[in-house]
Amino acid sequence: MSSNHMNLKLKIWRQKNIAAPGGLVDIDAPGISPDMSFLEMLDTVNERLQEKGEEPIAFDHDCREGICGMCSLVIDGRPHGKEDRTTTCQLHMRKYADGDTITIEPWRASAFPVIRDLVVDRGAFDRIMASGGFVSVRTGGAPDANAVPISKHEADASMDAAQCIGCGACVAACKNASAMLFVGAKVSQYAHLPQGQPERNKRALAMVAQMDKEGFGACTNLQECEAACPKGISVRVIAEMNRDFLRASLLGAE
Amino acid sequence: MEEDVVVGGNAGLSRVLERILHSTIGLKAVMALTGLALVGFAFVHMAGHLQMFQGPAAYNHYAHMLQSLGGIKWAIRLGLLAACVLHAVAAFKLSMRNAKARPVAYAKQKWLVASIGARLMRPSGAIILFFILYHLLHFTALLVGTAGFVDVPFEQDGVAMVNVYQHMIVSFQNPLITVGYAVSVALLGVHLSHGIQSSLQTLGALNSTYRPFVKQLGPLLSGLLVAGFVAVPVAILARVIH
Amino acid sequence: MSIHLDSHIPAGPVGAKWSKHKFDCKLVNPANKRKYTVLVVGAGLAGASAAATLSELGYNVHCFFFQDSARRAHSIAAQGGINAAKNYQNDGDSVYRLFYDTVKGGDYRAREANVHRLAEVSVNIIDQCVAQGVPFAREYGGHLANRSFGGAQVSRTFYARGQTGQQLLLGAYSAFSKQVGAGAITQHSRSEMLDLVMVNGHARGIVTRDLATGKVETWAGDAVVLATGGYGNVFFLSTNAQGCNVTATWRAHKRGALFANPCYTQIHPTCIPVSGDHQSKLTLMSESLRNDGRVWVPKDKADLATDPRKIPEEKRDYYLERIYPSFGNLVPRDIASRAAKRMCDEGRGVGPGGLGVYLDFSDAIRRLGQAAVADRYGNLFEMYQRITNESPYEVPMRIYPAVHYSMGGLWVDYNLMSNLPGLHVVGEANFSDHGANRLGASALMQGLADGYFVLPYTIGQYLATSGQKKVTGDEPEFKQAAADVHARIDKLLSIKGKRSPTHFHKELGKLVWDYCGMARNEAGLLKALARIPQLREEFWNDVNVLGDGESLNVALEKAGRVADFLEFAELMCTDALHRRESCGGHFREEFQTEGGEALRNDDEFAYVAAWNYTGDFAKPELIKEPLEFDEVHLSQRSYK
């Protein structure tokens, strides 16, 4: 083992299933290379656990390149860990020092129940999307893509919002477990495009109603979500959604 | 753009109210509007108080003018009361909801960018509410802290007025009251340092161009308000006004 | 019993086949569509777009995927763009040119008719995505921007920053969500398909395991659509997501579906090199980097340890520009990958283990300025820096090829139906339209073409003509399949050995990378074929899967997938051994030109190798579908 390897102490949330109580468990993580990603560190820990006859720690992950939004983890009190604009899978262990203690917890929100260990159910996000996060166009019959010019500025604003990976870090970071940044990002993406206009009122009303129904908290504009967002989605999307929602509400729109 | 189907009459109106009063964003908007209205009142109130520096005649005249507004006075009072109640009730409802949304706390939590003012909205708001109640009992209803208040009216040009100026002097020569007021007003400043920008954000009035500006404007306005409110009691305590 | 393969390619000139076929396909009466249930497995570009479109047509659709949300499939990671023959740039592009480039790029191992159809519908995809609100990059005038990509000499690639796959997948996911909201799609997240159910010779159902609860369930339908992606993770290290697996297609194969061309794997040239044993995946850096970056290695081995910035110009070998002067750094992926391997084999590779070449932006920064380079590649440079701790603005990037895409897959006919009636396969999971090598920005195109514009027509042909009775899921075939799945899970849990599933996966990955990776030869393949069955044996005797089957069990999921890779790997090596030629992603060292390029053998191997499972992994039956080239004439690909 080369000399720059680190020995870490982990405090990890372990929970057998959705109904069982959970708790923080101390686990040693020796021989961690600074070149490992955070999840590779957990892989290494899992291999050791299994050798000792203990079940591996369950955590969500898939692409491991910061785009699928499946990985999560609140690391030392911060969603996706200490590096700005970086998902857990892209966080590398060189950010830590030998002897560090790292606390790892799941996303905390009543709308995101813990399924096991660090894995939570984010189905609420899908239900919000199904309530209005789309343009009602069926396959076929779309006009030529260049038929409606869209200013670069608006297209860029739309893309800024569309970058959301749906990981839920905004909810995890918010003291109220509010989903406003996630929902705002989708509302804003379409609000900046001509294709989004016909259903603009309806979309804002429906998605906010579903968001509330799922039990997410309210936004108190602390902007922790923006700071925790691995894609740097701006809270301007929240202001835009508020505007759309209030206008549509006052209009009595259907 | 497709015409939205708008349901008219009572059904439409009740839906508007339903959406505003039963959604998180609607309730936040209620808080934002009432909050901004109260901020507006606070500035007028502060400007009135600064007339203490112009002597008893000016100040008592100002107070007398307010007292003689009659129906308008009561309309304003009711409006302010409604604003306070709506603001507080909405805050309470949302707080309950928020607590339910995050039932399990993190073992370790790190604040990333939230300002002190933003994190102290609930306690500062609650203390301000108690302060307002005390303040009304103190200077309006004359039920508490009235030791040393004289009942002799202030007379000028044949008009008899309540000597509010004297009430102020007597009250704030008491260091305890002055410190209590200063702390409460400072908390109001803390509350508004986040509240002003938060209200505008909630109402959807901010975009990337204005947000940075308003982010600085909020604390600046709060600072002005605190300075204006604290100036009078401190001047009285320091015997600059007497 | 040998199988006769009929690709059902319509007659007539290549440009008229699809139009004619669409007319010839039987239609399902609109009122009857809701009586048909289609089971779609996978929710990537192909699966989500197929599920959305089929449900729009009125079919009753169930969609199953192992991720927690349909928004996460690995299509999301495609960075560079999507091709379409729009000719918005007026630079001479056309459907025919896209068709031609794709057939040639695939090294003449794809079906002309399929590829032409792909090129035809490419233009509809862009229209569809824009209508859905996909925020493609635009020019100041408000029209769509294009870039040239991956060896194309025209600018036909549409993109959304460096996240095109993400935006297209989220577009398909939005259409999917719309249908879920309308109650037309039933989605099953964290659900893994573990078997295919055949009734009366037709694919009529699947068996799934709910990964959160462990519940094994059977689902009955009128047709099954597999959109389960590629098998790149057989190599353990690849650019695929951790969950990508061969299980769905492999279990279908074991139920009779032919597996075509499994040896065609694409090795992507621009990935971040391996840093150590702990590595769980390789990260791709968009091919677009080669538009401005220059690839080189030191001429002199003595310079390998020297700081690359201090190596003078005359001591650098810009080998792609030297060997391929007309395409230079933009040669297709297989060519660029092999050239990098050659440099490293010559001992001129840089970085740890000598497995890397430089991709240098200093010229581009001098020419365009750092700001312009940051504007184009900033997010990629950041990603590189996060992983390697080096800034590409200051030090040349180090890159090395990595497994990326599977051109092979289940065999399908022109209707995207496998040899098993009712079993349709779309996207990367089928052996598809890319031949032996896929061109950049063509995977997104194929996934969406299959899902939005091809399958919705062709599945009707099957449903309208199959004449099968309804199944309920209570038939003995369903019960048997579920029992098989239970037995396998119980077996995995009962072994209680010493080695973790990952341990076996790593060993298998290294084995196939060494002997069936970027370059293959007979001796190596024979070695791999001797070792794989042993490894499989060891796995079934010594794998350690803790926990139970009744809850979320990551080790159990992994073990099931590794078990299938251990079987699939043998077929991949068998295919590689039998194909005694080099073509595209399949490079047999025995068959190369003097210049080290792939040497095809069109006389003997211009066919699709479709393998039939016989019950003995060592002796699959080879069934050939001959390839005919009427339009694009066979010639050696030259990018010089």
The name of the CATH superfamily of the largest domain in chain C reads FAD/NAD(P)-binding domain
**How would a crystallographer describe the biggest sheet of chain B?**
2 strands, antiparallel
Low-confidence stretches of chain B: none
Task: Provide mean pLDDT of chain C, rounded.
Answer: 96
Q: Helical amount among residues of chain C, as a percent range?
A: 25-40%
Total discrete domains of chain C = 3
Mean pLDDT, all residues of chain B: 93
Multimer state: heterotrimer
SSE string of chain B, helices as H and strands as E: HHHHHHEEHHH
**Inertia-based shape of chain B:** globular
CATH class of the largest domain in chain C: Alpha Beta
The interface involving the most residues is between: A-C, 80 and 84 residues
- Beta-strand share of residues of chain C: 5-15%
List the defining traits of the structure above.
heterotrimer, B: 242 residues, mainly alpha, two-stranded antiparallel sheet, C: 640 residues, alpha+beta, FAD/NAD(P)-binding domain, Flavocytochrome C3, Chain A, domain 1, Methane Monooxygenase Hydroxylase, Chain G, domain 1, 3 domains, 5-stranded parallel beta sheet, 5-stranded antiparallel beta sheet, 17 helices, 19 strands, globular
How is this structure best described in words?
The complex is a heterotrimer of chains A (254), B (242) and C (640). Chain A has 254 residues and is α+β, with helices and mostly antiparallel strands. Chain A is built from eight helices and seven strands; from the N terminus they run ββαβββββααααααα. Chain A has helices spanning 38-51, 123-132, 152-162, 169-173, 180-191, 200-213, 224-228, 236-251, and strands at residues 6-15, 22-32, 74-75, 78-79, 101-105, 114-116, 119-120. In chain A, a hairpin with a 2-residue loop joins strand 6 and strand 7. The N and C termini of chain A lie far apart (65 Å). The relative contact order of chain A is 0.13. Chain B is mainly α and 242 residues long. Chain B contains nine helices and two strands; from the N terminus they run ααααααββααα. Chain B has helices at residues 9-22, 24-49, 56-67, 71-101, 116-119, 121-140, 164-172, 175-202, 211-237, and strands spanning 154-156, 159-161. Chain B has a two-stranded antiparallel ribbon. In chain B, helix 1 (9-22) crosses helix 2, helix 2 (24-49) packs parallel to helix 9 and helix 8 (175-202) runs antiparallel to helix 9. Chain B is globular, with a radius of gyration of 21 Å. The model of chain B has no long low-confidence stretch (mean pLDDT 93). Chain C has a five-stranded parallel β-sheet. A five-stranded antiparallel β-sheet of chain C has the order 11-15-14-12-13. A four-stranded antiparallel β-sheet of chain C has the order 16-10-18-19. In chain C, a hairpin with a 2-residue loop joins strand 6 (191-199) and strand 7 (202-210). With 640 residues, chain C is an alpha+beta fold. Chain C has 17 helices and 19 strands. The model of chain C has no long low-confidence stretch (mean pLDDT 96). At the A-B interface, helix 6, helix 7 and helix 8 of A face helix 1, helix 2, helix 4 and helix 8 of B.
